Amino acid sequence: MSDDNDENVSKPWHSKGDKDDKPDEKRSFFRELAVIIGIVLVVSWIGQTFIFRQYVVPSESMESTLIGCAGCSNDRIVIDKLAYRFGDPTPGDVVVFKAPSESWDSGGPPRDSSTLRGKFLNALSWFGYAPPNEYSLVKRVIATGGQTVECHASENVGIKVDGKPLHEPYIDRELQSRVPDAGPCLGPDFGPIKVPDGNYWVMGDNRTYSADSRFHTEDEFHGTVPKSDIRGKVRFVIWPAARIGGVGSENPQK
Question: I need a surface site. Which of 30, 60, 231, 241 has the fewest CB within 10 A?
Fold first, then answer.
């Protein structure tokens, strides 16, 4: 039995709907992309603010533990920001800290926050995509609050803490021998200096090329670094690939 309306039923039912769906699909894609980017930024902000942060070693002062120099592939390091929320730095820890006084911070902030570029980089720094706008340094903790540190070339025993010479296996003696007149202190005499409670005496492993606590004894902290200025403990070198690995603590007082 024939039906005069058959020809109407045979038309494609979805031809117009496909065109209408495309704008919705695009909007859905961009919504999903925005959500993914937002989640990545929030996770990055949480991580960089409370758990870890990446830094680039700025100088040769910690060689050969950490490499940093003009024209070379400077080490990229990751610090543990939780390490000192529940404890204190100990002798031998390698730490990143903010310059505690003008004596350390001779160059001032690395960028002008009043410019559009400075504001943009400051925003990126919240998520770890730009360095923080502060003069950061990396050194090794040598003595802690209440201890007395000193070194006198005439004694020919190197650095002493509470009257006892240190054992410092992290110092590259061959590297230091390139400065033949450095003496047993590998730099100028200093001390005795008693480290204030809650502060830390820090020095570079590349002792003859490190402007560390020894050179800031005239500031308000007598060259020491308050715990509040320590950003975290160095845990890893993550770049360059040939140097990927952990950064350990070597207690020089044992």
Answer: 241
Give the number of other Cβ atoms within 10 Å of residue 194's Cβ.
Answer: 18
Q: Which helix (H) or strand (E) holds 31?
A: helix 15-46
Domain of residue 111, residue span: 46-246
The string of pLDDT tens digits covering residues 188-227 is: 999 999 999 999 999 999 999 999 999 999 999 999 999 9
User: Containing H/E element for 150?
Assistant: strand 148-151
**In the annotation, is 139 catalytic?**
yes
Cβ–Cβ < 8 Å for 254, 135: no
Does 117 fall in a domain?
yes
CA 205 to chain centre: 17
Number of domains, the chain: 1
Q: Pick the catalytic residue from 139, 160, 194, 233.
A: 139
Task: Flag whether 17 is in a domain.
Answer: no
pTM: 0.83
Specify if 1 maps to a domain: no
* Alpha carbon distance 119, 249 (integer Å): 37
In a domain, 35, yes or no: no
- Supply the CATH number for residue 91's domain: 2.10.109.10
